[in-house]
Design goal:
Layout: H1 3-11, H2 16-38, H3 41-48, H4 52-59, H5 62-70, H6 78-83, H7 91-104, H8 112-119, H9 123-145, H10 151-171, H11 182-198, E1 220-221, E2 227-228, H12 233-256, H13 262-273, E3 279-281, H14 282-286, H15 293-305, E4 309-313, E5 321-325, H16 327-347, H17 353-372, H18 375-388
Antiparallel strand pairs: 1-2, 3-5, 4-5
């Protein structure tokens, strides 16, 4: 200890607040360096220049000192609660932002990493860690997401996801978690959290996968809400059709800036997604684009004339034709894909992460419902109706 430190400590001999701050600063340094188990009250008192009895008088116990040292900024903080006060759907985004920002900027003397390491092999540390998580994460989350038959499951998933990110990215520094840019990781983490906290529970009578049965076309009861009647089909498919038309118009405007149309961009993207050497047969491309065989042939002709793709005939069977991106075609396909992705993110900017997750789940349910009511079932129903009608009717 140098003379300046001695004078500083003597100068605050009758300064309770200064002594308290000194103890907290010393505790943060020693907890960070040695973990919860390795930092004792005597060592902390010596580091702070006070007596062990004074430390106990200020904080009561070692646990109390540690809780003061880590502070309240480790869980569902006041900033998170303020962010979701008027919009609960913002919870996943607020949690993702708060956790990544705190851990990205974690100071070297912060004791949290040391406590986590201690908790892996030291039962008292593990118990303290559990208590802090219960107090600073579980309790405020229960107030936000409410209590229900599945709230324990949701809470368990949120804690597991957040703790998993902390361990992978910050404690063990595993790749690729360590190097993923925060601006890319944050929305992905928000999506995962939205699945944990934003999915509605299956209504009574729903299938084991949460999907509603076809027989539930009449009035249904939500989890605890009022009785509501199912809307008329045109009230659903009309807006879906309108959204599709607007999506196509906006997508067309994006790709037009690159001098191609939507159909051409679909062909280029189908080849790009195939991976190196960016080649697919005409039949394979036809299976992933919304073009007829004739339309695909026309687009292939135009793209070949522009030097963006090349046709290759199979060496064993000359009837098989493959389309392959040229270097110029691959470059254009990548730039168009980036622009389309940016445009699509902008289209969804009006929806929160939880709302996007619910929309994804509802569209998946609609897709399964459409599959069940597909052409084969419609054809069988038509045959049955025809057979039941009297001859000449």
């Amino acid at each position: 200890m140098d003379s300046e430190q001695v004078r500083s400590r003597r100068g605050r001999g009758h300064d309770p607040e200064g002594n308290r701050r000194a103890v907290l600063d010393a505790a943060r340094r020693l907890f960070s360096a040695h973990g919860y188990a390795g930092a004792g009250i005597r060592a902390i008192a010596a580091e702070a220049g006070v007596t062990p009895g004074l430390v106990m008088a200020y904080f009561g116990t070692k646990d109390g000192l540690f809780l003061e040292a880590v502070g309240a900024g480790t869980g569902v903080t006041g900033a998170v609660l303020d962010a979701v006060a008027n919009d609960p759907d913002r919870l996943p985004r607020a949690l993702a932002h708060a956790y990544l920002e705190r851990w990205d900027r974690l100071p070297d003397e912060d004791p949290w990493p040391a406590l986590i390491r201690s908790a892996l092999s030291h039962p008292p540390s593990a118990e303290l860690f559990r208590g802090i998580l219960d107090q600073q994460v579980s309790e405020p989350l229960v107030r936000l997401i409410g209590e229900s038959a599945r709230s324990d499951v949701r809470l368990a998933m949120v804690r597991s996801v957040l703790f998993g990110v902390i361990m992978e990215r910050y404690m063990f520094a595993h790749e690729p978690a360590r190097s993923v840019p925060t601006e890319q990781l944050e929305p992905a983490l928000a999506d995962v959290l939205a699945t944990a906290v934003g999915a509605r529970e299956a209504a009574p009578g729903a299938g084991s996968d949460g999907s509603a049965r076809a027989a539930d076309a009449g009035p249904v009861r939500a989890d605890a809400g009022p009785v509501v009647a199912a809307p008329a089909p045109e009230e659903l498919f009309g807006p879906l059709q309108a959204c599709l038309q607007r999506y196509r118009a906006l997508t067309g405007a994006v790709v037009k800036d690159f001098g191609i149309g939507v159909a051409a961009s679909e062909v280029l993207d189908a080849l790009r997604r195939a991976g190196a050497p960016y080649r697919r047969t005409m039949g394979e491309v036809a299976g992933v684009v919304s073009l007829s065989q004739g339309g695909l042939t026309m687009q292939a002709d135009r793209l070949a004339e522009s030097g963006l793709i090349e046709r290759e005939r199979d060496g064993r069977d000359r009837r098989i034709v493959r389309l392959r991106l040229t270097p110029a075609g691959l470059d254009l396909a990548a730039r168009v894909a980036d622009a389309r992705a940016a445009g699509e993110r902008e289209m969804l900017a009006g929806l929160g992460a939880a709302e996007q997750a619910r929309l994804r789940d509802l569209l998946a349910l609609l897709g399964r419902s459409l599959d069940e009511a597909g052409p084969e079932r419609t054809e069988r129903r038509t045959r049955t109706t025809d057979a039941a009608e009297p001859e000449g009717a």
